[in-house]
Amino acid sequence: QVQLVESGGGLVQPGGSLRLSCAASGLTVSWSTVRWYRQAPGKERELVVGISSAGVSTNYQDSVKGRFTVSRDNAKNMVYLQMNSLKPEDTAVYYCNIFAYWGQGTQVTVSS
To answer: In this predicted structure, what is the pLDDT of residue 54?
Structure first.
């Protein structure tokens, strides 16, 4: 049974940082392309970043380039999203996605 569990969200002031985690079970993240999506209230879910199975290819949404960094820890079967210089428009529920599997999401709120 495949399960993805996100964590690390919260309330942060503009300019702050958060690190999201995605813990995977039932599959091996090192063999998978992993994507982070987000969905803001009243908006469609959008791709934030993807990282290839080999970890050599990443694809960031333009609005997060230079601020967000995706990484993986294959030994722990985890994927991370380091988010720096957060802006109010980054407020959303963030989801981890591998193949057809989704986590439950973690809320990120950027507000003063």
So the answer is: 74
